[in-house]
Design goal:
With 354 residues, the protein is of the alpha+beta class. Helices cover 25% and strands 40% of the residues.
Length: 354
């Protein structure tokens, strides 16, 4: 019995050493970093608005007597939309017209008096002083006549300003006035959408790549109106983030002809796809941290890992695009990096990406 103990120890010691060697390698999922094009896929939600929106107001205050349109009505240039009580303006115009008639009569009398004075002076029976006095009187009456004409023009403009007219062909989108209501000068009462075109207004999340979509096409589908898909071109990206919503306003001009005013206010979903620059792609689960910088575990030919700092260009769905720190073909730990440290050996599990 005492002679067999060394033999038993000689048999089991190598087995334990072999087991220890196997457990030194941590099994992780290893992926290969590949260079791929950065395809930007973005979905935006918004609504259809007119490219040009007009807010109309009376030039003078007063009580509204008539509102001649309703929301959704199409109007043409010069069409009356609403009226104010114009009794005072009409009275002022009548008084101005009466004053103009009186000044015209006085001007005619002064002109005839000057002609008589000139005729007497030419026959030698009149005086130069009388002729000059008649000329001066005519000049004064002509000045009063011009002032009366200006007063009539102002009175007529005041009467015309009591009627709110459409400046161009448009659609009424909002009305904030009713008969009997007293409004102030320059107080908006009607909102019109010009028929010059439609655009989709989106509220997009702030993204560094957002400025690159300017000029690209957006496919749009309506959510509450049964219409075929439309196409628009991004024409404007707000330079600042809205402090209330934390989003950026994006405008896309509709390219669909004869879209129709029925789309005004319709909710739409926009789909934007565009190819950006190429970059090294790894799964987001490979992302670690080295101090304050992002990093990934790189596996060398001996199966040992090194924590390598990287520069992230863009986050995509399930992946990250790396602009610096990795080269095409390098092996990276995709999952299972919790117990790793520099120099630690790893072993690939089944199903790893080659």
């Amino acid at each position: 019995m005492f002679k067999l103990l060394p033999l038993v120890l000689m048999v089991f010691v190598p087995a334990m050493a072999a087991a220890q060697t196997v457990t030194d390698d941590i099994r992780v999922r290893i992926v290969t970093a590949r260079t791929q094009p950065l395809d930007l896929e973005m979905q935006l939600s918004g609504e259809i608005e007119a490219v040009d929106t007009l807010e109309l107001a009376f030039r003078q205050g007063g009580r509204v007597t008539e509102v001649l349109v309703a929301e959704g009505d199409r109007v043409v240039a010069g069409q009356p939309l609403a009226r104010l009580n114009a009794v005072q303006q009409d009275q002022a115009l009548n008084a101005a017209l009466a004053g103009l008639a009186a000044e015209r009569a006085r001007t005619d009398q002064a002109r005839q008096a000057r002609e008589r004075a000139d005729a007497l002076l030419s026959r030698g029976v009149g005086t130069r002083a009388a002729a000059d006095q008649a000329e001066q009187a005519l000049s004064q009456t002509q000045g009063l006549l011009e002032r009366a004409e200006t007063t009539v023009e102002q009175a007529r403009r005041a009467v015309d300003d009591a009627v709110l007219r459409a400046p161009e062909n448009a659609v009424v989108t909002a009305k904030s006035v009713a008969p009997g209501q007293v409004v102030a000068a320059a107080q908006p009462v009607l909102t019109l959408a010009a028929l010059s075109g439609l655009e989709a207004v989106f509220q997009a999340p702030d993204d560094p790549l957002l400025h690159d979509i300017l000029g690209h096409d957006v496919r749009m589908e309506t959510l509450d109106v049964d219409r075929p898909d439309m196409v628009g071109t991004v024409t404007e990206i707000a330079p600042l983030v809205d402090p209330q919503t934390g989003t950026v306003t994006v405008r896309a001009r509709l390219l669909t002809p004869n879209a129709g005013t029925v789309l005004l206010g319709a909710s739409v979903r926009g789909h934007l796809s565009m190819a950006m620059e190429r970059g090294i792609v790894v799964p987001w689960t490979a992302l670690m941290r080295s101090g304050d910088d992002p990093a990934v575990w790189v596996v060398d030919d001996d199966g040992r890992v090194t924590l390598t700092k990287v520069v992230i260009n863009h986050f995509a769905k399930g992946t990250i695009f790396v602009s610096e720190g990795l080269t095409d073909g390098q092996r990276v730990v995709g999952d299972g990096a919790q117990l790793l440290y520099p120099g630690r050996r790893v072993q690939a599990v089944e199903g790893d990406v080659p």
